[in-house]
Structures are given as structure tokens and as C-alpha cells.
Design a protein that fits this description.
Number of helices: 7
Number of domains: 1
Distance between the termini: 40 Å
Number of strands: 15
Helix content: 25-40%
């Protein structure tokens, strides 16, 4: 078994920046921020993958409990849940299901493409993908038991390289100008998740320096649209599967941290 990478926390321009390994370990930070602010978060994802698949194990039912009281009770279990019970492809589903995430914007640096799962409108969100919990006989389809599994209500099959069709909600393609307008008026906390495979992944080709420079130039536009994020997570994506070349991951991490410092370190000097 690969050794567990312990999160590393930094403050860049006063903004909490956490380095994690698999991207699914952002989940406890989402829940804690939602509990602290008592509001849903807006997630901004910079990633070569959408990470929006379903069939995440459900947490104990929250019927009859206040939402934030329920989240507070979950916090002690969330680290193990994020590390061992969800994976790098399906960890977002619980964020929407437990109303921690109100909308998610996914920027694919390689394709220079922005997609939205829900939208933020000032202090509110709209059109977030809906979820449900499946149990009993339905669980034979999804391969689980216990509290059931979380699925998308209107999910769409998607073909993935090396696997059968998988289910994810339908994304809405938007322009970067749309994104900027949404974030300019946003009154909710924003959490940035930056997967290093968005800079250079195992499937990318070409000189890394050239590819990374081109993508950083695209990403900076997205980062600058978030005036002051609640926090930023950088995902190294080395375990349990590698999505980033091992010999490049430290250089990519430094490039990402440098970009964050260029934007926020100068905007909010210590």
C-alpha cells in the first residue's frame, strides 16, 4: 500500500492553501467551510477530469436533524470517508447531496473549456444537479449496501477510456465571460480545487515546459476571476492511481503555487 500523503497547509496572501494527494481528500475541507460559513460553497475546479461520477456511499440519514448540526456530527468521520470510501471520480456527488456545494464550475485547461454544474446568482444558486439515495433491491445494480449509495437523478452515461459507460450529470458549456460575471456577483464562499493533471497529465504529450506555460496562461484568467477564495486545494494525484508523471509532480506543484502567489500574494500581501 502506498504511504498516506499528509495534507500540507500554507497561507498565500492570507489565503489558506492545502496540498493534498488524491483530489477526493478535498471533501472534509468543503464540509468544514460550509459549517463555518453556514452557507453552501461554490466549487471552482481546474482539472483534466470532471470527477462527477456517482455511486458514492451514503452517510447516515439526516432526516429530523438540522443541516448544519448534521454536518457537525459528520466531521469526525469525514477524513476516513474521503480517503477510503469515495474515490477520485465520485467524491463530488456527496457535496451536492448534503447541500455543501451549491454549484460547480469545471475548467479543463487542456481544452480551454468551462462547464457549469449549476450556477451562482449573488447569494443564491440555481440548477444544481439533483441526487437521490438508492437502497435495498436497487443496490444490486450499484454494488453496495449499508446506508445506500448516492446517484444523480438525471445522470447521463459517459464513455470513459478503458471502462464501461459511467454516469455523470449533464454539464452546461459556458464562456469564460459568463464565468467571470457569475463570480463577480457571487456572495457565497468559493473553494478552488486545482488538480495538477490540469497542467500536465500522464496522457499529455509534448515538451512539459511548453504545455505547462500554455495552460498556466489559461488558468490565470480563471483564478483572477475569484476575488478571494475561502481556500484552495492543490491535488498531486499520485495515489491510489497516478494521473501526473511522478518525475514532474514537484515541478508542477511549484508552478501552481507560483501562480497562486502571483495572483493572491500580490493582491493580499502579508
Amino acid at each position: 500500500m502506498s504511504p498516506v500523503f499528509r495534507p500540507v497547509e500554507l497561507f498565500i496572501g492570507g489565503i489558506r492553501t492545502i496540498i493534498i494527494d488524491p483530489h477526493n481528500e478535498i471533501l472534509p475541507f468543503w464540509f468544514r467551510e460550509a459549517l463555518s460559513s453556514r452557507r453552501r460553497l461554490i466549487a471552482v475546479r481546474i482539472d483534466a477530469h470532471h470527477d462527477m461520477f456517482q455511486c458514492s456511499p451514503a452517510l447516515p440519514a439526516c432526516e429530523g436533524r438540522g443541516k448544519f448540526e448534521f454536518i457537525a456530527k459528520l466531521l469526525p468521520a469525514l477524513q476516513d470517508y474521503s480517503r477510503y470510501r469515495v474515490n477520485e471520480g465520485n467524491f463530488t456527488c456527496p457535496g451536492f447531496h448534503y447541500e455543501v456545494i451549491g454549484a460547480l464550475y469545471h475548467f479543463h485547461p487542456g481544452k480551454n473549456r468551462m462547464e457549469a454544474y449549476g450556477r451562482v446568482c449573488g447569494p443564491e444558486t440555481e440548477d444544481a444537479p439533483k441526487t437521490a439515495t438508492v437502497r435495498d433491491a436497487q443496490m444490486a445494480v450499484y454494488g453496495g449496501g449499508g446506508c445506500g449509495r448516492i446517484v444523480w437523478v438525471d445522470g447521463q452515461p459517459q464513455e470513459c477510456r478503458g471502462c464501461d459507460a459511467r454516469i455523470a450529470p449533464r454539464a452546461r458549456r459556458i464562456t469564460l465571460s459568463d464565468f467571470k460575471r457569475d463570480l463577480q456577483d457571487c456572495e457565497l464562499p468559493v473553494a478552488i480545487g486545482f488538480d495538477l493533471d490540469g497542467l500536465y497529465g500522464n496522457e499529455d504529450r509534448g515538451p512539459p515546459e511548453d504545455v505547462v506555460k500554455k495552460r498556466l496562461d489559461r488558468i490565470v484568467t480563471v483564478i483572477r476571476s475569484v476575488s478571494r477564495p475561502a481556500f484552495i486545494c492543490l491535488a498531486r494525484s499520485q495515489t491510489p492511481r497516478s494521473y501526473v508523471p511522478q518525475n514532474l509532480v514537484d515541478r508542477l506543484q511549484e508552478a501552481a503555487l507560483g501562480l497562486i502567489n502571483d495572483v493572491y500574494g500580490k493582491r493580499f500581501p502579508a
